[in-house]
Amino acid sequence: MMTGYSMSGWGWLLMTLGVLGFWALVAVLAYALLRQPDRRRRPDAEEILAERLARSEIDAEEYHQRLQTLHEVAGRP
User: Fold this and answer.
1) What was the pLDDT predicted at 25?
2) Domain extent at residue 52
3) Which of 8, 46, 47, 57 could form a disulfide with 52 if both were Cys (CB 3.0 to 4.6 A apart)?
4) Tens of pLDDT along 29-47?
């Protein structure tokens, strides 16, 4: 029947590297999808204040007053 079909050493090497590469790609994609550090992090109060200042929702004076209040409540200098 199908005699004479044998894989040489190069064939085994390429097949092994292909399988290892495939599973490495699967592992990297799974890690990247499960990790997602920036999407789960919530902004802190100072970042929200800075964003509001950047969008001109509050002026610089109100920003500094609120920032000072945050630092007093948190016990920071």
Assistant:
1) 98
2) 42-74
3) 57
4) 999 888 876 666 778 889 9
